[in-house]
Amino acid sequence: MPTKSDAAVVPGARAIARHVHISPMKARRVVNLVRGLPAKEALTVLRFAPQAASEQVYKVLASAIANAENNERLDPDSLLVAEAFVDEGPTLKRFRPRAQGRAFRIRKRTCHITITVESVVATTPGVRPARPAAKAAPAKAAAPAKATKATPAAEVDASDDAPTQAPAKKATKKATAAKPAATAEEGTE
Length: 189
Known about the structure:
Elements: E1 12-20, H1 24-34, H2 39-47, H3 53-70, E2 79-88, E3 92-97, E4 103-108, E5 111-119, H4 132-150, H5 152-158, H6 165-188
Antiparallel strand pairs: 1-5, 2-5, 3-4
């Protein structure tokens, strides 16, 4: 059975904000925006997010980045938001007086926000893997498609083939739309 010591340790850091006075559902909506993004990009997304919870999530993410930079000696530009989740905290129960002696319960929900950042190996920005074979195949497939649209005889032949059936149907709709216009012109003569 694999243990923690067997797994590859990825350098990273985390930050937790506990007892934040925001509903967990509202905080999860914001946290889902930044999960999996590079840390700097996630900070930018949170800075301009209109939700009120984005301010608290921004603080937690900034703290996680600072922990990685100061405690783990990691480069802040190479960090990625690896984990981001929101747990439910304790609920404060209050009562609101209502008509005829009744009282309605008010639930003031809290949450715990946890964000983990990990260092990612930076790739060379100028180097891209070449894929000329993948680009050549779609170009060849696009050429016969243009030919079938150009000639009506090719459309009839293409209607027998199953993969090219959709363009032939579109062509027949255009042809049927042209027939009533032709009959209307004949009727005016």
